[in-house]
Design goal:
CATH architecture of the largest domain: Orthogonal Bundle
Distance between the termini: 37 Å
Order of helices and strands: HHHHHHHHHHHHHHHHH
Structural class: mainly alpha
Number of helices: 17
Helix content: over 70%
Length: about 400
């Protein structure tokens, strides 16, 4: 009983921290989304900006080598900070921010959530460090109390990083529940019950911040069909089964191509230049720019029942090449693109409505690639409403188990 009271008191003591991180992450996510949207608009107006992609690739490489030197970057760094107590650097925030904008401005095929997860995690780490919470002054105490102090300090830091990640994700996607479980699942948090309240609080505060600034929750162009074919649940299960290897392929390409590139092309600048040129070549070969940037137009078309048979493949290739070039952004929206277009294109083969197939594929591919089955279902509910939750749950569970153990953040 006393231990629970102590946990409650500790939670109340740290509540101002959650509020501060939530406000900061909300404004960060808001500004980042505005900037990425602006970059995408400019790119559509001036498509020749894609010829600057190799220059941007080399520039981003230079900036990262000057700013971080041997320090690692990416969403995995904030996850490692929780698992291994590794360090984070405040300069990661401006580097990721501007590198992502330049990537989208010049036509790199990337998302934005990986960048916002990294920035949010670093923001939470910086805020808790600046506040100098109790537990960091343990050197004056007895050796046993010193260990306890370090553990407490690490626990506070871990929660602050999780809160920053969830808050920034919530602000970016305007999906507060998905943000909470997405962060807890990708970090494989074992203390979910203890961390849920602070992470949930921060996510809600960030959500309120962007709503007060004028944003509303996403409403994608999708409606659950009133009349569904007989055996729809079985058809959804079959679609999810064939979607699983697609998610696995996406994950392996996103992780494998950059790794192979680093092995065979040692010089970072040459690697950035060559793969950036590769994105340009593929863009002109395909005679479309729908695979560049976020690809939200193609996702919306898929949810209206329109999807090309090879769209999922080309998006995977261009995203893998973009990340191999060292350009920044994220992998989740490309994964959503892959799932939605695949579901829309191939669901008619199972006698399944293509618009519902796109939603099922979207949820299933997210679950398969990021290994977030709960967050994937919640994303489907927050984007499309709760009527189709049984289909999202079936797709998420099947794709999670049939796509292997590896995920984007493992």
């Amino acid at each position: 009983m006393m231990s629970e009271v102590k946990k409650l008191l500790r939670l109340l003591r740290d509540f101002p921290l959650f509020i501060l991180i939530g406000i900061g992450a909300g404004f960060l996510g808001y500004l980042f989304r505005l900037s990425i949207t602006w970059a995408g608009t400019i790119r559509h107006q001036y498509p020749r900006l894609i010829f600057l992609l190799p220059v941007v690739g080399v520039l981003v490489t230079v900036l990262y080598q000057l700013g971080l030197k041997e320090h690692k970057n990416g969403p995995k760094t904030v996850i490692s900070a929780i698992r291994d107590n590794s360090s984070l650097k405040g300069i990661q925030i401006p580097l990721v921010f501007f590198a992502s904008i330049l990537t989208h401005l010049t036509g790199g095929s990337a998302g934005r959530e990986g960048a916002v997860l990294e920035m949010g995690g670093v923001l939470g780490d910086r805020i808790v460090s600046l506040l100098h919470y109790p537990g960091q002054k343990g050197r004056r105490h007895h050796a046993i109390r010193l260990v306890l102090a370090r553990e407490m300090s690490k626990a506070q830091r871990d929660v602050a990083i999780l809160c920053g990640m969830a808050g920034a994700f919530s602000a970016l996607f305007v999906t507060p529940l998905t943000a909470v479980f997405f962060v807890l699942e990708i970090t494989e948090s074992r203390q979910i019950l203890h961390r849920f309240i602070p992470v949930f609080t921060t996510s809600i505060i960030s959500f309120m911040v962007v709503c007060l600034l004028g944003w509303k929750p996403y409403q994608l162009p999708y409606y659950l069909p009133e009349a569904l074919p007989a055996g729809s649940l079985l058809r959804a299960a079959l679609l999810a089964t064939v979607c699983s290897p697609v998610g696995y392929f996406f994950c392996m390409m996103i992780k494998g191509v950059p790794h192979i590139a680093q092995v065979y092309i040692k010089w970072d600048y040459l690697r950035a230049f060559l793969f950036s040129v590769g994105v340009i070549i593929f863009t002109f070969f395909l005679k479309t720019d729908k695979f560049n940037g976020l690809g939200t137009e193609a996702i919306n078309d898929a949810l209206l029942g329109k999807g090309g048979y090879t769209d999922f493949f080309w998006k995977t290739i261009l995203t893998a090449m973009t990340l191999a070039a060292g350009l920044k952004g994220g992998e989740i929206i490309p994964a959503i693109f892959v799932g939605a277009t695949f579901g829309a294109a191939y669901s008619p083969l199972f006698g399944f409505p293509p618009d519902l197939g796109a939603a099922v594929g979207l949820v299933g591919c997210l679950s398969a690639t990021a290994k977030v089955p709960i967050a994937a279902v919640l994303l489907g509910v927050e984007l499309f409403g709760g009527k189709g939750i049984i289909f999202y749950a079936i797709a998420s569970v099947i794709c999670y188990f049939l796509s292997g153990k590896n995920g984007l953040y493992r």
